[in-house]
Amino acid sequence: MSSVDDTLASRHAASLPRYTSYPTANHFDGAIGPADYKSWLAEIGSDAALSLYVHIPFCEALCWYCACSTKATRRYEPVADYLEAVETELLSVSQLIPGWHRLTHLHWGGGSPDILSARDIRRLGVWLNNCFEVPPGIEFAVEVDPRLMTSEKADSLVEVGVNRISIGVQDFDPVVQKAIGREQSYEITSKAVDLFRDRDIRSVNVDLVYGLPHQTEHSLDHTIQQVFELSPDRIAVFGYAHLPHRVRNQKLIDASALPGPSQRYSMARRLATLIEQAGYKPLGLDHFARPNDSLATRSLRRNFQGYTTDRADVAIGLGASAIGRLPRGYVQNAVSASDYARRVQQTGLATVRGWALTPEDRLRASVIERLMCDFTFSSKGLTDRFGEAGLNILHEADAIIAEDIDGFVQRTDDGFCLTPRGRPFVRNFCARFDAHLNRLAASSKHSLSV
Ligand SMILES: C[S@@+](CC[C@H](N)C(=O)[O-])C[C@H]1O[C@@H](n2cnc3c(N)ncnc32)[C@H](O)[C@@H]1O
Ligand code: SF4
User: Fold this and answer.
1) Class of the domain covering 31-317
2) How far is residue 305's CA from residue 385's CA, in Å, rounded to a whole number?
3) Distance of alpha carbon 331 from the chain centroid
4) 447 pLDDT exceeds 90?
5) Distance between CA atoms of residues 110 and 318, nearest Å
6) What is the rounded end-to-end Cα distance, in angstroms, of the chain?
7) pLDDT tens, residue by residue, 189-216
8) Which is it for the CA torsion 240, 244, 246, 250, positive or negative?
């Protein structure tokens, strides 16, 4: 990396949101509860497209780096009890939405959804089919911890309609794996991939993380070559979010072994170069896909799972901590599995916070989503959709361009864009359009933008 890049990375690294929604989830408040969710569900039109996310907040052991909403369990009983609560919530939600709806996308995430027994995977599949129309072939993705996979579980996942899997790898280097409390050999990972490929699941995503302790560009070179041997269709490369004051298990990570902003930046650049050289197309902040993959050929959207092609009007979130996006706003369920189950047993729903979208939120959400997905937004698109208010955003964009001394942003014939040089810093520019961001508080809440 040149010293110019080095200086840029250090100067622009800031603690900022990953913008999987706008406003970001830390702005949701307790003013929104089950009564709002009920009335918002009742307003869903009969022709609205629906997608559905189910959160399974359990893993066999907690990886030290993990910031996901999950909990370790060695016993299956808490998982089985939790699934009963999910069934209750599913029934309530489907009864509150008027009419019979067809799903366009399904996603089971976690935690580790493959902690579910084969029997429970089938049961969850049946419940979903009883409550919604699940057309064969719709995109149905599941996050998988390869260390938990068995052929029986793979059979059941395929049987319920899963056609995409996302596998956590992070890094194959044994030194890094030891330092992050996740030991997972290449052989275990490739065996899990084969279990799905043998059952005709062609779409495989691999998650990697850079910025982990003891990682170097060199160790990542080796990891990425092993990832290419798995021949994934998509690769997600996340920058490690180290927030030990919020994520207790991260206290086990030796902070003195963490790379600094300029090393993180060079790791991200190096990985991007190697992945692109291997024929993948870069997408948004941190995703890569084969040129014929739907993520590369369709228009990109941003949601709580990252990048997606899901264009549904309504995204239902089921389970502890799950977030739903409705035309009126966002709703989030209780975070702990026990609190979630208790609330569902009492009222059928577990909403504890949310956000009612204002017209200005919708405008800024659209700008930030386009920047996160395409690094650009069109002024015509904005004014067509938001009228005069769209012009104010263009004034803000002009002010940002006027202050830019690094060649990161520019005007286009029809709007505003980040230059290739500015793209790694996209979160910094989204933050400039974020009217809710409290810049002082942000440093304790978010991960490094580079
Ligand atoms: C729900 S987990 C993955 C599914 C599965 N449980 C597994 O571990 O294989 C989703 C992904 O989030 C990413 N992730 C978790 N904690 C992170 C952190 N602190 N910073 C960046 N990425 C993180 C990891 O890449 C992980 O694979
Ligand atoms: S990375 Fe996956 S397996 Fe590890 S704690 Fe997080 S959700 Fe669980």
Assistant:
1) alpha beta
2) 26
3) 16
4) no
5) 11
6) 14
7) 999 999 999 999 989 999 999 999 999 9
8) positive
Nearest to 323 by CA among 57, 11, 28, 3: 28
168 C-beta closer than 6 A to ligand 2: yes
For residues 145 and 114, is the Cβ–Cβ distance under 8 A?
Answer: yes
Three-class SS of 410-446: EEECCEEEECCCCHHHHHHHHHHCCCCCCHHHHHHHC
Using the Cα atoms of residue 444, residue 446, residue 448 and residue 449 in order, give the sign of their dihedral: negative
Domain boundaries, the chain: 31-317, 359-450
Task: Indicate the CATH number for domain 359-450.
Answer: 1.10.10.920
pTM: 0.94
CB atoms within 10 A of CB 46: 9
Q: Between β-strands 103-110 and 139-144, what pairing exists: parallel, antiparallel or unpaired?
A: parallel
What residues does ligand 1 touch, defined as CB less than 6 Å away?
A: 59, 65-68, 109-110, 112, 143, 145, 168, 170, 207, 209, 238, 240-241
